[in-house]
Amino acid sequence: MDTGLAGKVVLITGGTRNHGRASALAFAKEGAHLLICTRRSMDLLEETAALAAKSDVRVVTDRCDVTNESQVNALVRKGITEFGRIDIVVNNAGWRARGALLDITSESWNATLATNLHAPFLLCKSVMPSMVANRWGRIINYSGIASFRGASGATAKMACEGFTRGIANAYGKYNITANLIGPGSIAVERTPGQEIPAGQGTATENIPIGCRSHTEATN
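That's the Short-chain dehydrogenase sequence above. Prediction below.
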């Protein structure tokens, strides 16, 4: 099946592992060129790039703190310089403070909102002029079960849903779509400090099919 992705340019944030790496490899298999970034391990990002490049596509990597406006703007400029345009944006980078209201610090609250809400705003705002000029674009944001659990995670993801709808309504006339993906329970490798404490994870008996999914299933 022709997905129409061959030759498209896809920008993916948080491309070192899990959803980000799986998305990069899936797009590469369809013939899309990639601009992937991370604010952490460039070694892991280069691993993703090497795996994606096996699909005979061009892959550009960069370090970027997606909560920093100047770095986001520089990332978009790099993509347009390298490829001439950016067709698809996948706002994959995420962070979630765990716990109920009284357990969350102001720092964790702000970090969650910055990564899950402010970062997509910055990237979409930066890339939108190019998409409008080209009269084509695709925005993919992430929601998930965090939209219904916890204080900070739910707040950021619910807000991102409204933000995504706003983009779709305002820019659909330019052949630009914006969609929110809400994955279920997926077993992922977690950043140190974000591990799920024993007894607080999603129990498989509460999942209709009886098991959690894995990012490798996308490929």
